[in-house]
Write a structure and sequence with these properties.
Layout lengths: L9 H12 L3 H10 L4 H9 L18 H13 L9 H4 L1 H7 L2 H13 L4 E5 L15 E5 L2 E12 L6 E7 L13 E7 H4 L4 E5 L8 E12 L3 E2 L5 H37 L1 E2 L2 E2 L4 H29 L5 H26 L10 H9 L8 H12 L7
Parallel strand pairs: 1-4
Antiparallel strand pairs: 2-3, 3-7, 4-5, 5-8, 6-7, 9-10
Bound molecules: flavin-adenine dinucleotide (FAD).
The site of flavin-adenine dinucleotide (FAD) has 22 residues, from strand 1, strand 3 and helix 13.
Length: 387
């Protein structure tokens, strides 16, 4: 068995690798220092059609299944790059595809597929409503043929680099809804019209270069024609998009883990201490081998979850478990890689400390490890609910 045994989509992977080779570590390090957006990289991916692989061919995409999207994102991450700048372009359109009206699909999906419109922003989290989404308070009040939106969102990534945003807001206060998850609706917000007319975006500097922001809505008027699906049912629409998001992000973690394993193996073969390669010491070898075992196990879980998703089968638990395993495998591999490199693991020019910071995110977002464990405990193992 080799590291890359039985890889899916070999042609797509090879093409993504070639594209990523044009954006080496120096490119990412310079952006990381300034917290700048990788515009050239995202444009190159868009032009090559990699961000529209999941859009049906009737709307100008490649019409491929989720496994193809996973292959693209895994290779991006394995190369040392980061798909966080644009991965939402792949899955956010799923809300429009599955729940939008025929007119909305015709109006937006071909332009998203061609790259004319960027649908990169997904607005759910709020300062006082993270994991407990039903507590969101951003409110859309109907006023004639418009909704008037007021409230605040936090951690909304890529908002400054997106033409459209899928926004979840309340249309009925939580207290008046039949169930806490009722009374939320999805609006497609045109950012080009909204910014400066009721929407203010404030960047939030974080430990990684992720273009994340805080959003302030003050009586933003959104045409009622931009409501996706039925009013009050938005939570359901967002939830079924989350499985795709979790599986795709798990694939990014697999790519990160492979990056760390590749780098650590190469360094352990080359670095001589006490007159021999450090990789000859089992104390150095074994953590690399363990990272490989963990990554391989997680990779199978990601493939399994993607296959269920593609078959239209229920896959909530599998998507969650794949994301948990892959994010833990990438974090273990990151820590192992720093340790294998000794002091050089901390040097910017090796890209390891940057990738270490980047891969840490995935145990918190898009859903934290504890919440996945709680799902498995209560939905699969029938343990009592704690909240
Ligand atoms: C860089 C970045 C980018 C992001 N991008 C987006 C985006 O584009 N769009 C968007 O909508 N959101 C985005 N998010 C938000 C992200 O999805 C949330 O941070 C995440 O869901 C966790 O929510 P929270 O931060 O409010 O944590 P909280 O819900 O406040 O939880 C804090 C901690 O407590 C734990 N916890 C909470 N309740 C329980 C419980 N009952 N049992 C056990 N443990 C519990 C959690 O696991 C977590 O570790 C982003 C976040 C970051 C950091």
């Amino acid at each position: 068995m080799t590291q890359d045994a039985q890889q899916t989509f070999p042609e797509i992977r090879e093409a993504v690798r070639r594209l990523c080779a044009r954006f080496p570590g120096a490119y990412w390090r310079a952006l990381d220092r300034e917290r700048k957006y990788p515009t050239e990289f995202v444009s190159a991916l868009t032009e090559a059609g990699f961000l529209s692989v999941l859009i049906p061919d009737d709307y100008g995409g490649s019409g491929l299944g989720l496994g193809a999207g996973c292959a693209v994102l895994e290779e991006i991450h394995r190369s040392g790059a980061n798909g966080g700048a644009c991965h939402a372009q792949m899955y956010t359109m799923g809300v429009v595809l599955r729940h939008g009206s025929p007119a909305q699909k015709e109006a937006y999906l071909p332009k998203v597929a061609s790259g004319e419109l960027r649908l990169q922003a997904f607005g759910v989290t709020e300062p006082d409503a993270g994991t407990d989404t039903t507590r969101i308070t951003t409110f859309a009040r109907r006023d004639g043929d418009h909704y008037v939106v007021s409230g605040k969102k936090l951690w909304i990534s890529r908002a400054e680099h997106s033409d459209l945003m899928v926004l979840l807001c309340r249309t009925t206060p939580r207290a008046d809804a039949a169930k806490p998850s009722d009374g939320m609706s999805v609006l497609l917000v045109d950012m080009r019209e909204a910014v400066g007319n009721g929407l203010t975006i404030r960047p939030v500097r974080t430990m990684l270069n992720h273009a994340t922001t805080e959003l302030f809505f003050e009586d933003l008027r959104v045409p009622a024609a931009n409501l996706i699906g039925e009013e009050g049912k938005g939570f359901r629409y967002i939830l079924d998009g989350m499985n795709a998001e979790r599986i795709l992000i798990a694939a990014e973690c697999i790519g990160d883990a492979k990056f760390f394993i590749d780098r650590a193996s190469a360094y352990a073969r080359d670095r001589n201490v006490f007159g021999r390669p450090i990789g000859e010491n089992q104390g150095v070898q074994f953590p690399i081998a363990r990272a490989f075992v963990q990554m391989t196990a997680a990779n199978h879980m990601v493939d399994h979850a993607a296959a269920l998703f593609e078959a239209g089968a229920p896959c909530g638990t599998e998507a969650n478990m794949a994301k948990l395993s892959a994010s833990e495998a990438s974090w273990f591999a990151a820590d192992m890689c720093v340790q294998t490199h000794g002091g050089f693991g901390f040097a910017e020019e090796y890209d390891i400390e940057r990738k270490f910071r980047e891969t840490r995110l995935y145990q918190v977002a898009p859903i934290s490890t504890n919440l996945i464990l709680s799902h498995v405990a209560t939905h699969v193992l029938d343990l009592p609910k704690s909240f």
